[in-house]
Amino acid sequence: MRFSRRLASTTVAVALVLPLPLEMMAHARVHAAETEPQEPYGAECWIRLTGSHVTAYCHNPYPETDRVSLHVECARWWDIDSDGSWVDAEPAQTVRLTARCWKEVGSVWVSHRRES
User: Fold this and answer.
1) What is the secondary structure of 22-88 as a DSSP string?
2) Cα within 13 Å of Cα(53), Cβ side
């Protein structure tokens, strides 16, 4: 009997100390009239790294043009980083972007922007 009381009080104490899950935390209320529905946008990109060569394929499944650019940071301090030019990924089109470093690649990412 004493064991179950101790277990119950310990369980309650632990439950009070644990933080609330993210879904249960308070959120600011926004009225439906104030929000505008966002249209889906943005090409999906896959990056392939082969040695010091980088190739990115970006496919745009949406009806609005997405402008994409490939950025490469090289691992060596003396190797030149590159920011590619903007390429239009038209609706239902796949574009290929390429770049390279002389030695190892440090990081790679693709930027997106809406056509003006």
Assistant:
1) GGGS------GGG--PPPP---EEEEEEETTEEEEEEEE-SSS-EEEEEEEEESSTTSPPEEPPPEE
2) 4
Look up the pTM and report it: 0.65
Place of tokens 């308070």: 26
Per residue in 17-32, pLDDT (tens digit) is 444 443 333 334 444 5
Residues 6+ apart with CB under 8 A from 82: 70, 71, 72, 99
Please report, to the nearest 10 degrees, the dihedral formed by the alpha carbons of residues 94, 49, 105, 114 taken in order. Answer: 20
Q: Annotate 64-90 with b (16+ C-beta within 10 A) or e (fewer).
A: ebbbbbbbbebeeeebeeeebeebebe
Distances (CA, A) of 15 to 2, 12, 38, 109: 20, 5, 39, 42
